[in-house]
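Model: You mentioned two targets. I'll fold them one after the other.
Researcher: Yes, keep them separate.
Model: Target one:
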Amino acid sequence: MHRRPPSRPARVLVSALAVGTLLTCAACSGESRSEGGGGRGDSAADVAASPLAAESPLASPRGGRSASPRAEKSAGVLTPAGAKAALITEADIEDNWTQVKDAASWGDTLLIGKVDVAALLTAKTNAADCQKLLDALYDDTLLGKPSGASALTGFEQSESRLLYQVAAYDRAGLGASLNWLKTLPVKCDQFTATDSKGGHRTVQVIEDPVPSVGDARQGLQVTVTGTSGTQPVTLTLQLAVVRVGTDAITVTSGGLGGTETDTTKAAVQQGTANLKDVLAGRTPAAQPGHLD
C-alpha cells in the first residue's frame, strides 16, 4: 500500500475497479479547508441586496479594494458561513449524483509520481510545473492555500466523482495561479510520471472550455494512463476554476469512466451564481431538485 507523505492531505477521486483495488485512502488534514454538509439555507437567513447586506453573516464589507463605489456596495468578504452557503447541492447538478460526507479524504494514487524529466516532450525546464500540477491535483491545491474562509463538498455517481471548492485567496496569488494554469497545456502537453515501483504513467494536458462566468476563468482536461495490476486504466479529469473578485470556485470532476461535461458546466454556472449571491449578502436560491 502506498501512503502519501504525512504533510499532504489526501482524497480519493475514483472508485475501485473490479480488476483490483486501485485506490488507497488516508486521513486528510483540514487545516486549509472545511467540508460542507447539507442545504445552503441552513447557515444564514435570506438577506436582500441592500445597505443591510453588510450585516449578513454571509459577507462583510471588503476593504482596501480599488473597485468602483457601486461595486464596493455589493462586494463582501467571504466568511465561513458564506463559503458553506455558496456550495452547490445535488439539485444543482441533477442526474444521479449523490453528495458524500468524506470528500475531504478523497485521493487517487494514479496522481502520485515523479515527472520523468528526460522523457518530457517540451522544454526540460517545464518539469517543475508538471510536477506541481500532479501534486496540486492530489492535494486539491490548484490555486494554492486559501487566505481566508473556504468550504468543500463532493458528489459521486458510478465510477465518477466531483469535488467542489469555494475559497478566499490573496489577490496577487490568485491571479498568479490562474496565469500558471493557462500555461500548462503548452508546458505540460504530454509527459511521463514514474511511480515508486518504477511504473510509468503517461499524462496529457489540454485546455478545456469553461462557461463565460465570473471575472476570470480557466479550464483544463488532464488524462493519466497507467495500470491497475496488469490491466490498463485511464483517469480523465476536468478542472474548472472561476474567479469572482478575490474569491474563486474550483471544480474537479471525472474518473475512470471519463468526464461529465454537462455536470461540470452546471456546477460552474450554479456555483458562480451562488458565490455572487453570497458576496452581495443574499442567500443563494434553492434549486427545485431532480427532474424526471
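Model: Target two:
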Amino acid sequence: MQTNQRLPLIDILRGFAVLGTLGTNIWIFAYLGDLSYITTSHYSGWWSFDDFLRMLVLFFVNGKLLGLLTIMFGVGLELKYQQSIRKGNAWPGVYIWTVLFLFVEGFIHFTLVMEYDILMSYAVTAILVAFIVKAGDKTIHRALYTIGGFHALMILLLLISALQGANMSLPSNESIVTIYQHGTWFEQIYNRLTNFWFFRTEAIFIIPMNIFLFLLGVKLMRTGVFAQDEHGRHMRKKLLSIGLYIGVPLNLLIFIPGGAFDFPVRYLFAPLLSLGYIGIIGKLIKYKKVDWLWQRFGEVGKMSLSCYVLQNVLSSIIFYGWGFGLGGKLSSFEVIGMWIVLSLFQLFIAHIFLKHFHYGPLEWLRKHAVQAVAHK
C-alpha cells in the first residue's frame, strides 16, 4: 500500500506506545536501577498488595508497549521507503543519515539520562531492515521466518533451562542503587560509560526480535492494517483476537513466581499483546466523544522522540539523588500516580508545542541535521 496521506492511527499508536514504555521504565527509575523489581525472580509465594499492584501494571505494559513501539518504528521505516520510491530517490540513501543521527541521539541519551536507552538498538536494527526491505518481498518473508524463528528458539531454550533449575534472575545491584541514590549526575555518567557493554547487553540481545518486529510493522503497513476503511477494520479485528485469545493467556504467566517466565513473557509473548493493542486502539478511536484524547495521543506520536527523552529526563530528576531523591521512597500506588502525572504532562506539552511548531525539538534538530548532510 502506498499513500501520501498521514494515517492518524499511526501517530495515535506511536504516542500510546511512548507513554506506555514509561509504565515499565518508571519502576526502574523508582527503584534506582534495580531491575529485580520488574521481574518475579525473588518471589516464591504470595505477594504483598504493593508487589501485586506493581506486577499488575507490568502485566499490561512490560514488553508490550516496547513491542508496539518497535512495530511502529517498522511502520515509520516503511513510510520512508514509500516516500523514497514515490520521489524516485535511492534507497536507503538519505535514510541512512537519519538512522545514524538516531544512533548519536541514543548514545547521548544513554550517557546523560538512562542506561537502558532503546534508540541505539533501533538505529542498528533500522540499518539492517532497510537493506532487507530493499531486497524485496521474498527477502522480507524469509527474514521474518528465519530471524523470528531464531529469536523464538533462543527464548524457548532459556525457558527450558529455567524450568530445569537454571538461575535466570536479575540480581539486585547494590552499587548501582547506591550511585543513583547518593551519587552525583557526573558519577552516574561515569558509571554508564565505564560499564558500557554491560548496560548494552539487552540492546544487543533484542536485535533479532527488533528486526522481526520492524519487518512485521512493514508487513502490517503494506496490508493496510492502519487504514480507516473496511479492510483495515477487518485486519485490526484479527489482531485484537490474537491479543485476547493468545496474548493474554501467555502473558498471564508473568504472575507465576520464580522468574522462569520473565524472559519468555517480555521477549516472546509480549508482542502478541502488542498486536492486540493495535486492534483495541483501532476499535476505540471510532468513539468520537473522546476524539480530543486521540488527538492528544497523536500529538505525542508526532513528537515521540522528544517525549521519550523528556519523560526519562523528568523521571531522573524526580527519583535520583541529585534531583528530588524520591527513589525507593514511594509505594506502588504513588509510582503509578507519578506515571499518570508525567503522561498527562507530556500530552499537554505536545499539544502546546505543536500548536506553534510543526515538529518536536528533537525531530526538528534531526530533520535539519540530516538535510544539511544530504545537501553537501
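Researcher: Noted. Anything on target two?
Model: The chain has a mean pLDDT of 92.
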